[in-house]
Amino acid sequence: MTALLTPTEVEALARAAHEGQTDKAGRPYAEHLRAVAEGVRARGGDADQIAAAWLHDSVEDDALTERWLEEAALSRRTKDIVRAVTKRAGEPPEAYARRILATPGALLVKEADLAHNADPARLAVLDGPTRTRLTEKYARMRALLGLGIPD
């Protein structure tokens, strides 16, 4: 059996996969990945969840393929969490939330992702309509996932 990727290898792989990408505010995308991984760690997440946090947008953003994920030296649980938090084109938010809730470990990763996405400091640099749209989108997803008002 192949040894699983180490946490350092997963981080390096995620950073390389998203190299050159920026978030909506123009910041390097790796900053978001780091923040989500740190958010998972701070919430008591385990190694599988932290690895999934680093990779949570990799398939959705076409930085890595579904085939790569299937063949990667990652735990089945990490792969399942990444798949669960990967939004699918045209998928209703309710179906997305159900998949997250049905996948052990995925809710914590999505909670950390939403917390960073909804960070007022990140949202403040966006134009008003975008800030309003995203704030409403993140609040709706939190509600669908049964997450209360963020701290």
Break the fold down into its secondary structure elements and pairings.
Blueprint: H1 7-17, H2 29-42, H3 47-55, H4 66-71, H5 76-85, H6 93-102, H7 106-117, H8 120-124, H9 128-144
Characterise the protein shown here:
By secondary structure, the protein is an all-alpha fold. It contains nine helices and no strands. The chain has helices spanning 7-17, 29-42, 47-55, 66-71, 76-85, 93-102, 106-117, 120-124, 128-144. Helix 3 (47-55) packs across helix 5. The protein is globular. The N and C termini lie far apart (42 Å). The mean pLDDT is 95.
For this entry, give a set of tags.
9 helices; single chain; 62% helix; mainly alpha
Structure summarized in a few sentences:
By secondary structure, the protein is an all-alpha fold.
- Content of β-strand: under 5%
What is the number of E strands?
0
Estimate the global geometry from the Cα principal axes.
globular
Question: Which blocks of ≥5 consecutive residues have pLDDT under 50?
Answer: none
C-alpha Rg (nearest Å): 15 Å
Count of separate DSSP helical elements: 9
- Overall SS class: mainly alpha
Largest sheet: none
Q: What is the share of helical residues?
A: 55-70%
Order of helices and strands: HHHHHHHHH
Query: What distance separates the N and C termini?
Result: 42 Å
Whole-number mean pLDDT = 95
